[in-house]
Write a structure and sequence with these properties.
single chain; 136 residues; alpha/beta; 2 domains; two-stranded parallel ribbon; elongated
């Protein structure tokens, strides 16, 4: 059993005590971790700062969730902005980058993406840009 103490004067807030176990080649089993006498529960994934972290390190679920959020943002702007002819394409592009792309790519700097995931993100962006530009 691993006992964590606040040797550096740090305080741990234990409202939702969870630990994410990520196995490697040297550690073969999960250890019991206690903080202030409370056992931490093991989870396979959890959400931290609006990003989902999984124990296997795969980001497919995170990308799907981000694409759903960005698509919802795009859809909410359809009647209010995208279908308005008096708004210039330049303004629409800036709003697309500010709202839709920032929602889609939030936390992406920490992702390890593979070619198939890049293709999926690229297809998502092209689909929405074609819709925005009314290209069939």
């Amino acid at each position: 059993m691993l006992q964590i103490v606040d040797a550096f004067g740090l305080k741990i807030n234990i409202k939702k005590p969870e630990v994410l176990y990520q196995p490697n080649s040297t550690i073969t089993r999960e250890e019991d971790i206690m903080v202030d006498g409370i056992n931490l529960n093991y989870v396979l994934e959890f959400t931290f700062l609006a990003s989902t972290i999984s124990s296997n390190g795969c980001i497919d679920d995170e990308i799907q969730w981000r694409m759903a959020k960005a698509s919802a943002s795009f859809g909410r702007l359809r009647q209010r902005l995208w279908n308005k002819h008096y708004v210039s394409m330049r303004v629409k592009g800036k709003i697309y980058r500010a709202i839709v792309l920032s929602t889609l790519l939030y936390g992406a700097e920490a992702w390890t993406v593979y070619r198939r995931q890049v293709k999926k993100l690229h297809a998502f962006m092209m689909r929405h840009l074609r819709s925005l530009l009314r290209i069939i």
